[in-house]
Every structure is written in C-alpha cells, then in structure tokens.
C-alpha cells in the first residue's frame, strides 16, 4: 500500500510541477518545463523505431503532447501544441512529424519550453 501511495505522490508531483526561470550565462533567461512519458513507449525491432506511446510537456498546465502511434511502423508521430493547457481546443495545433529512428527512448525531465512549443521533435 505504501508503494502505491508513493507512486501516486510522485506522479502527482510530476504532473503539477511548475517550471522556473533560470539564468543562462550572460543575462539570458530560459524557461524550463517537465517532459515525461505518460504511456509506455514501444520500440519495434522490426522497423527500428518507436511505434507507440505518449509523452507530455507540462508547465503548470499541459503545453504539448506527442503520440507515437498505434504500433504501425510508419516512422511518424503526432505532436499537439496545446492552447492554454487544452490539447483538444480548436486553437491547439497538430503536427505530423517524422521520427528519428536512431532514438530508442525519450529522456524525461527538465527541458526548454521551446522544445515543447516547437512543431518538431527534439
């Protein structure tokens, strides 16, 4: 029971963690947000690519979602850049992206907000 409680607490913390402004050397500032896998990624040995799973970018609210598909070896993902935290809003934008099949996983953690808002994958 304690393991489930700890897992839920950590998941909630990641979901609602906010980003902070950080200094980058000569007075420049960048905004960070959190990127995490919220549906397990599946790598296909057959086509050598991630074929399913989902990634979320969060900064107090959801900035973007990446859906790697349904298991088809099509080398494509759909990135939704959300509108004011609503990824299903009519102003949210969807971008079909070609996947870099050299990448077998996605690193979670702190990233630049610009990565979340870009219509491309990193």
Rounded Rg: 16 Å
Q: Total strand count, please? A: 7
Alpha plus pi helix count? 2
Beta percentage is over 45%
Percent range of helical residues:
10-25%
N-to-C terminal Cα separation, in Å?
A: 38 Å
The residue ranges in which pLDDT falls below 50 over 5 or more consecutive positions are 1-29
Q: Biggest β-sheet, characterized?
A: 7 strands, antiparallel
SSE pattern, N- to C-terminal: HEEEEEEEH
Helical/strand content category? alpha+beta
**Oligomer status:** single chain
Average pLDDT for all residues: 79
Form type: globular
Task: Note down, in words, how this protein is organized.
This protein has 122 residues and is α+β, with helices and mostly antiparallel strands. It is built from two helices and seven strands. It has helices at residues 2-16, 113-117; strands at residues 21-24, 28-44, 49-59, 61-70, 76-81, 93-98, 109-112. Strands 1, 2, 3, 4, 5, 6 and 7 form a seven-stranded antiparallel sheet that branches. Strand 4 (61-70) and strand 5 form a beta hairpin.
Task: Please render the helix and strand layout as text.
Elements: H1 2-16, E1 21-24, E2 28-44, E3 49-59, E4 61-70, E5 76-81, E6 93-98, E7 109-112, H2 113-117
Antiparallel strand pairs: 1-2, 2-3, 2-7, 3-4, 4-5, 5-6
């Amino acid at each position: 029971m304690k393991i489930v409680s700890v897992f839920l607490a950590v998941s909630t913390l990641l979901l609602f963690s906010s980003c902070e402004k950080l200094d980058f050397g000569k007075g420049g500032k960048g905004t960070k947000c959190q990127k995490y896998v919220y549906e397990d990624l599946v790598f296909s040995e057959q086509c050598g690519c991630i074929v399913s799973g989902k990634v979320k970018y969060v900064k107090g609210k959801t900035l973007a979602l990446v859906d790697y598909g349904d298991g088809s070896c099509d080398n494509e993902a759909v990135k939704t850049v959300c509108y004011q935290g609503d990824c299903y809003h009519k102003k949210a934008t969807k971008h079909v992206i070609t996947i870099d099949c050299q990448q077998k996983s996605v690193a979670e953690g702190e990233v630049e907000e610009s990565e979340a808002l870009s219509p491309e994958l990193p």
